[in-house]
Predict the 3D structure of the following.
Amino acid sequence: MRVDVSLVPGEVAAKDVQNAVVVVIDVLRASSTITTALANSCEEVIPAESIEEAITIASGYARLDYVLGGERRGLAVDGFDLGNSPYEYSESKVAGKKVILATTNGTLAVKRYGGAKEIVIGCFLNADAVLRSLAAWRDHDVILLCAGQDERFCIEDALCAGLYASGLAQTPGAALSDSARAAAAMHERCKDSIEDALMGSDHGVYLASVGFGDDVRYCARQSVLDVVPKVYDRRVIRKARLGPEES
């Protein structure tokens, strides 16, 4: 297993992931929101690249069967049911429903790398669950893909990738790339103060300034959800245990 980290969105070309397992990481907040929604029994999450695409997708379903969620610049989209705060995706709102979700960075990353061998969604909230699942793929390369913010580096995604890289380094035969070792070193330095690191990040500061400081603190919690969101058929994300037998 070779473990690589894409610290900047687009660093890894779509053609380079065909035989790899990709973990999409968008800590603040798409990955955390998707994981929370699935933990709260939503049927599936359908990622959209744009608000317009989300509305088009929604038009194909009965109104009672879905909730429409999304954000632009961290704020809820006018006319949508929910924004991108994981707290909004409670069981009472999403259980048994499809969640059609359009966010600025995370859902775009899912769509961009649809040709990967397998795609899962990772964050701090489900770190242990994802790492346990990735152990079944020790004969494949793993790419930890940081979604970033507007195509730029984000410390929160890099720290989460570093947590995963450190965990995968314990897999027999695992080899870490330079970027994976760099991310692991960043995480090692901050592992006892992840909440502070997220609150002090550029996007964490912005989210707190528009009233979502509690979201940032929630997204810093580690391994509290036993959920592995997995992408199926390039179009939906469902709760699943990852393993080669599911390919």
